[in-house]
UniProtKB/TrEMBL annotation:
Keyword terms: Apoplast, Copper, Glycoprotein, Lignin degradation, Metal-binding, Oxidoreductase, Repeat, Secreted, Signal
UniProt GO molecular function: copper ion binding; hydroquinone:oxygen oxidoreductase activity; oxidoreductase activity
Cofactor(s) annotated in UniProt: Cu cation
Secretion signal span: 1-22
Cofactor note: Binds 4 Cu cations per monomer.
Pfam short name (any one): Cu-oxidase_2
Biological classification of the source: Eukaryota, Viridiplantae, Streptophyta, Embryophyta, Tracheophyta
Domain of life: Eukaryota
Residue stretches making up the Plastocyanin-like domain: 66-171, 183-332, 436-570
Coiled coil, from the record: none
Keyword field contains Cell division: no
Protein name (Swiss-Prot/TrEMBL): Laccase
EC number: 1.10.3.2
Function according to Swiss-Prot or TrEMBL: Lignin degradation and detoxification of lignin-derived products.
Amino acid sequence: MELKKKSLVFLLLNVLIRCIASQNVTTFYWVVSIDTSHVVHIARWPKVLSSFGKLGHRSQSVLHPSGTKDILTVNGEFPGPAIYRHRGERFNVNVRNEGKYNVTIHWHGVKQPRNPWSDGPNYVTQCPIKPGANFTYEIILSDEEGTLWWHAHSDWSRATVHGPLIILPEQGKGYPFPQPQNEVPIVLASWFKGDVMEIIETALQNGGEPNQSDAFTINGQPGDLYDCSTEGTFKMMVDYGKTYLLRIINAIMNEEMFFMVANHSLTVVGTDGAYIKPINTSYIMITPGQTMDVLITADQSPSYYYMASRAYAVVGAYDNTTTTAIVQYNGNYTPPSTPPLPNLPNYTDTDAAANFTVRLRSLANEDYPVDVPQTVDTHMYITISMNTLPCVNNSCDGPDGSRLASSLNNISFVEPSIDVLQAYYKGINGVYDTDFPNEPPYYFNFTGDDLPDTLLTPERGTKVKVLDYNSNVEIVFQGTNVMNAAENHPMHLHGYSFYVVGNGTGNFDNSTDPTRYNLVDPPEVNTVGVPKNGWVAIRFRADNPGVWFMHCHLERHASWGMDTVLIVKNGTTSSTSMLEPPSYLNPC
Ligand SMILES: *[C@@H]1O[C@H](CO)[C@@H](O)[C@H](O)[C@H]1NC(C)=O
Ligand SMILES: *[C@@H]1O[C@H](CO)[C@@H](O)[C@H](O)[C@H]1NC(C)=O
Ligand SMILES: *[C@@H]1O[C@H](CO)[C@@H](O)[C@H](O)[C@H]1NC(C)=O
Ligand SMILES: *[C@@H]1O[C@H](CO)[C@@H](O)[C@H](O)[C@H]1NC(C)=O
Ligand SMILES: *[C@@H]1O[C@H](CO)[C@@H](O)[C@H](O)[C@H]1NC(C)=O
Ligand SMILES: *[C@@H]1O[C@H](CO)[C@@H](O)[C@H](O)[C@H]1NC(C)=O
Ligand SMILES: *[C@@H]1O[C@H](CO)[C@@H](O)[C@H](O)[C@H]1NC(C)=O
Ligand SMILES: *[C@@H]1O[C@H](CO)[C@@H](O)[C@H](O)[C@H]1NC(C)=O
Ligand SMILES: *[C@@H]1O[C@H](CO)[C@@H](O)[C@H](O)[C@H]1NC(C)=O
Ligand SMILES: *[C@@H]1O[C@H](CO)[C@@H](O)[C@H](O)[C@H]1NC(C)=O
Ligand SMILES: *[C@@H]1O[C@H](CO)[C@@H](O)[C@H](O)[C@H]1NC(C)=O
Ligand SMILES: *[C@H]1O[C@@H](CO)[C@H](O)[C@@H](O)[C@@H]1NC(C)=O
Ligand SMILES: [Cu+2]
């Protein structure tokens, strides 16, 4: 019965997709290129979305007087162009690479039903677009609604190659909250004085930590708290008494962030392209890869107020600077000499991070239903660790001359030289192994202090997990304190969103913890912060056949191997199988 209903839905969806495909599909033409002697740019987002019918983007750039360098951009913009679409639409983006590095683009949070070909991660679903080449991504939206984003998924180029992907309700439909006066994307990003590609290359060569960023930015600008950067600070104009929708995207490379607006409270209404039960809060904690839709009412005395963001980070060195923008009321008043700054939680305040995160619940009403798997076919228990690999003559820059690494279930992912998708589709042997383990190779007190050195060294390999079509999958991610390096890891899954059904501190207990799961209205997300020395349990139905990357969204961890791939097999019919590849694929 259940199965029958499901395949009917699939059939309908399939017809719908074909039907949409036969109409004209908008294609955006993008050029990835090096912007020389750049600049921190200011992007002015569309001021008023007069109706839902308005698509595309408008933005202007003005040069900033300080700090010029070369950066990789899309169409010369940083952050990159914002795409506005309606729920369920389909569009194409032709990306031509005029830069000097290989590049790919990922549509973060878009499920791409049956279409891994356009998902983007380098050597997982495609070989890169080489300089001079191009690729047309076919983006298929389904039930995503709210804020998502797009970013490069090759090396560290996503530092500057990223932008908003905003999915409005269907034509003629509204939000599940009063229509805001205006909507403003707030893109948080990292700014490195050095060349990001050189930074990660050097770090991987020498085995040590990559350089930290030198600033964070809001919509391309670091803000007033950095030297000589006042000129371009992003300003959001508001009218007293009106409510605004902030579409916040954490595009930062290596830090989770607290975000606040001075003297104003926030109401979080959505995350990762799905609505939630509204949360009133003074601050949010947002990890790289996550997005949050936040309402703010201009209900304070007309003036200037800072919005500000800084790291939530608990280990090692991190960028401890604070980025700001200004909420500025329209009207006649004397501007303050300095706007009030919000009192952000301390960098290491794990309680503050957890207190916010555990409040997330799906909206889960008649109009926005959830479909949480109540039973499980495949259980996976995955440990997340920082590690080291031995280095010849102990000559590397990691601890005791070792090379830094990281792993999932003690497997440190190795990027293949032919993409996994192509190898799977064409049956090319020797590119990957299908033995990614369902549980850690050994059990110990994962969150214990001073764990033995014998736990330091992971196995290296390109190991994937193969899942049956339509199976219900539960993954429990277990944070570990190997190397005394426990921290919050934002785990991201491509091709799906998933329900976060449980969370806790310490070691997951498979007899008692599942009894406390929320199977009624858990949040539906594509990225979840696995708490420091804690765990989260996620569930999803494997109903999207394809090859899907799963990884930590802290960029240095992903570079060190905190990644794996889920292959979801075809169903029994062509409409439950992967789509055919596009006519042109970039060669390896
Ligand atoms: C598709 O585009 C072509 C050329 O721009 C136009 O002639 C045609 O009418 C369009 N078809 C539809 C269904 O919009
Ligand atoms: C993309 O590359 C092909 C050759 O591979 C070329 O024929 C085509 O004109 C290019 N398209 C764009 C938009 O650059
Ligand atoms: C990384 O930081 C070191 C020390 O500050 C500096 O010497 C080096 O040039 C930086 N590397 C890059 C690629 O910016
Ligand atoms: C902002 O809040 C602080 C205390 O939280 C208060 O001292 C200050 O007067 C407020 N500023 C304005 C402009 O309302
Ligand atoms: C930020 O980090 C630097 C070292 O990188 C340190 O000197 C400084 O005291 C730190 N500032 C704060 C506010 O923690
Ligand atoms: C944040 O840390 C500082 C210095 O460690 C401390 O003085 C302050 O009380 C802390 N604030 C909060 C809210 O815990
Ligand atoms: C977190 O929540 C607990 C319980 O509600 C509260 O006692 C604590 O003060 C909160 N901590 C922070 C940093 O908000
Ligand atoms: C996290 O766990 C707490 C305690 O069981 C629960 O109340 C909360 O709903 C959970 N939240 C998430 C997002 O998992
Ligand atoms: C694991 O280690 C933590 C930290 O030392 C400790 O609090 C906890 O009791 C240990 N758990 C077990 C089961 O030994
Ligand atoms: C719980 O985990 C243990 C390993 O610690 C395993 O042997 C057992 O099968 C698991 N039980 C369930 C119900 O998954
Ligand atoms: C760019 O991609 C091609 C094709 O996979 C590969 O052969 C080449 O080594 C890559 N170049 C760099 C610098 O990674
Ligand atoms: C789905 O699976 C892949 C990988 O095994 C095959 O290459 C495809 O041919 C198959 N698609 C269909 C429609 O069966
Ligand atoms: Cu991580």
